[in-house]
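HUMAN: Now follow token order:
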Amino acid sequence: MSGFVAHGRTDPGRVREQNEDAFRVSQLPDGSTLLVVCDGMGGHGGGQLASAAAVERICRSVAEAPAGQDARRVLYDALVQAHAAVLSAAASMGDSQMGTTAVVAWVRGAQCFVGYVGDSRLYQLRNGAVVERTRDHTRVELLVQAGQLTPEQAREHPDAHVLARTIGAAVAAGTLNPEVWREPLALQPGDGLLLCSDGLHDYLQDAELFGLGEKLDVKAAVDRFVSEANQRGGADNITVALGIFGDTALRRHAPPARTILDLPSVPASPGVPAAAPAPTETGRTPAWLVPAVVAGVVALVLGALGGWLVRGKASAQAAPPVPTVSVDAGTPDAGAPAAAAAAPDAGEPADGGTAGAVPAPAVDAGTAAPAAKSAPKAPAKTSKSEGKQGKAKK
């Protein structure tokens, strides 16, 4: 079947009285679907207001975008506008720490465009595994990418929730750099798109996500994710939005059969060899041909050896004795050919080598093009541990 079904839920968790998360699952007039999850921060209700304002501004910006505009530009502008809206609200409330994370998935047909700021995540689930996910804009993620921490160490690091990028928060004013992926995700039937706040991914490992929601419809799967996070501690607000493409439940779909025409002619990524087609019956050597060829070669070798021995014996018997000749060493033999010095042919071309790699096209920084999947910029000194009162891990 075709189509896309989605459902979302937010829960305060087992410790907090106030829920500073917000989400939206919105069907747009053009038939596309927008999923947004935000995790707010700030004192005296500032986080709750920040996340709600960001969700509202993002959804309105995407819905009002001109038809035909590049989807990546639309998401980038929507996140920038959400940043301005939260800063404006923070100024009116006098809360300089008011801010939020945001992760957005815009599903248009079989493509999903992704943009985000902070540590709320998107996972693409397929056939029992996570095939793609966003990388947190946090200090520890910078250390992981630099090879200074392992992912396991990052989870328990004291700065695990210190954000490098946020929407809002006065200390980050004017420095927002939303990450919008240049290439959309290609969706296959059965793919799941899971958006969540850190209240979920703090407790659930990536490898167990598909199994927890497998064979459940979107609503039942969302409820299962929230319930599991609460059972494992529920120290933070928990928000989940789940969409499934081409199905009504998370299921394993067998990959489509591949033909030789589908096989890549070059490696898909550095160091990974391209797949080779399996041998077929028509490509195998007939079983009777190998011994026949071997026998023929042996017969030819034995015949040639026998002929050489016979001719050598006859020549030795018929050859007359060679008279001894005295040669003057100081006089060269006029009949001997002179040795020719071997010189390189001047007209022979030299080794030209190989052409250099073609550089990647440059991006005009002045147009504020959507960012690629690259490492975050210098971290802003913003921590959800400072904005979320009473939070155990933050």
